[in-house]
Prior knowledge:
Oligomer: single chain
Amino acid sequence: MAHLNEVQKKRLSELLKSARLRSKMSMREVARRARVDPATIVRLEQGNNPNPTIENLSAIAEVIGIPTADIFALTKVLRKDELPSFTPYLRAKYQDLAEADIAEMEAYFQQIAKRHRISPDGPHPGEDE
């Protein structure tokens, strides 16, 4: 995994700690279930691990019930061109959502995107480089 900066480490630590607390598990229990060293959990939650492995983060995320993709998106480890645009994301993530609800959310997103002068389809090739 890429080297995390201070902001990314803080975001990651907050996400992992809040999810662990919601799951009502101790750091030691998460470590046991994820099969990682307990010190790994401590360092991540304290924001003291600039180079966590994808394997450890994936295992921990599974144990505490958060999507691994959320970790990568939150820490901005994924490049913008690796993320889906808004409508495909909605359809994939919320498959039981009514078509009318997706259309309503998409229309609202279009308004926000227009107000901020961004393309709702994401950057064009080369724009984010």
